[in-house]
Amino acid sequence: MSKFIPMELHLNIFFSFAISFTIVYFVIPKIIKVSRIKKLFDVPNHRSAAKHIVPTLGGIAIMAGFVISTIISSNYYNINDLKYLFAAIITMFVIGLKDDIIGISAKKKFNFQILIAIYLVLLGNYRITNLHGILGIQEIGYVTGVILTIVAIVGIINAFNLIDGIDGLAGGVSLLTSLVYGFWFLYAGDIVYALACFSLAGSLIAFLLYNVFGKTNKIFMGDTGSLLLGTIMAFMTIHFNEFIPALETVPKGLPAISLAIIIVPVIDTIRVFIIRISQKRSPFSPDMNHIHHSLLKLTGGSHLAASSIIIAVNGLIILLSFLLIGELGNNLLFILLLVLGFVLASIPANIMKWQSRNDVAEEEKKESKSIFAFSIFSKKGE
Q1: Rounded CA gap, 284 and 274, in Å?
Q2: Among 244, 258, 273, 293, which residue's Cβ finds the most Cβ atoms within 10 Å?
């Protein structure tokens, strides 16, 4: 790709963003209206961060904005590669929609995710072929690559599904991810994937206006949205690591960078799975052990503050990774990111434990003072 981006490409990028934003912005009020008429709501329970009844079909608008915008803005380019992504997200869209409307078991969702991963690997040929130095490993065999890719796709889909617990988090993390991938693909000359990423970014910004700042017109993305986003992010992450840029100046094979980009859902999912398994529960059993639940309590129940902190930290980690990749290389940076991720993820829960111990200590102090005062008063009365 030349040093300067052609004006025509600037316009395509702008249109991809603008079309998806416009579609989502004007479709969501219609979805909210239908949801209210048909009573398609998310009813809060003891685990819900939300305390009011809210429509959950925002994923429909995100899907429409992303697909329509990508097709229109890529009119002059060959989007043949994306047909596998479109087929995968349409399938996950249907599964998510069914879950949002009538419910579906975690086991069935998991099985469908495996099928989608197998489809993308075997038919779409989206497969990890090289670890680029992670654990000292470079090229890997076909069977190993297939298994590793299926695990990665299913893991990423679940990770994005699981972080959709408070307003703005799944949408905000996905927006950051799509923008980083979008600018990198644009710089690397991978125009179709760049347009797809910017189409998704436009959809997400419009959605977040309603999800975060909406009052009478608030909406959630639901499983329809989170499964859709997880599938897209898994697809883009694998392509990011396997794509070979035309220019030698553009780095390739950066699994450590891709970990930094999606580190929030990945670390949070691994962490809660470890907690659940250690408690002899199913890793898919719901609880309140996510990072965002702890931060929500620490920020006084502010969804915007909790989501903003997580997204800001994610952004700093991405920036740090781009600065350090040349010095540390994939293997050392990958390990460093894993350690840093788990350390940062444990901070909110540890702060809550520390506050809880302090509260207990204060209560014990007050109680001992009361007992002491009562004993003095009793002695005086005698």
Answers
A1: 11
A2: 258
